[in-house]
Amino acid sequence: MEVAKQIEKAKKGDQVAFTFLLNQYWNQVYAFMLKRTENQTTAEDITIETFSKAFDKIGTYNTAFQFNTWLITIAKNVHIDVMRKKKTNLFVEITNREDQKAYNIADTTPSAEDELITQQNLSRLLQCIKELQPHYQEVIQLRYFQEMSYQEIATTINEPLSNVKIKLLRAKKLLAEIIQSKR
């Protein structure tokens, strides 16, 4: 009964309900994906994307089905998408001419131009991050620049692990929207 109430609240945009559902089902979806992928990072990323998609589309959830079954179905589809992307990246046709060019490369260190482009891209990214609210900036900085785990971030900012996961999820989504709007 409690889950059904929280789903209805989430459909109306209640953030507390989203947190409840994330806490309620995170371990189940993560364990399913970990068993399937046998990789903690991939399982975590797919689980995060699963909840992101589920929360975006929660209005389409059909109560005739179990909520966890709906989440697992989304997770399976996200995993299939990830596998397709990896598969297309693995098999790239290379002509003999391109193959020969690869062997003729003398120096693989970045040129001054490459370094300048990288610095400019990083500068643009940092500008976009600065447009986020401070609490989102903080979790992005801790996760991607200091490379902390979710648990380390939770300890650092003194918040529950589930809040850190939600904040990172939202921060990445907002950052993507900001970057997209500047193109």
Automatic annotation (TrEMBL):
GO terms for molecular function: DNA binding; sigma factor activity. Residues 124-175 form the RNA polymerase sigma factor 70 region 4 type domain. Residues 22-87 form the RNA polymerase sigma-70 region domain. This is RNA polymerase subunit sigma-70. GO terms for biological process: DNA-templated transcription initiation. Keywords: DNA-binding, Sigma factor, Transcription, Transcription regulation. The lineage of its organism: Bacteria, Pseudomonadati, Bacteroidota, Flavobacteriia, Flavobacteriales. It comes from Flavobacterium crassostreae. Belongs to the sigma-70 factor family. ECF subfamily.
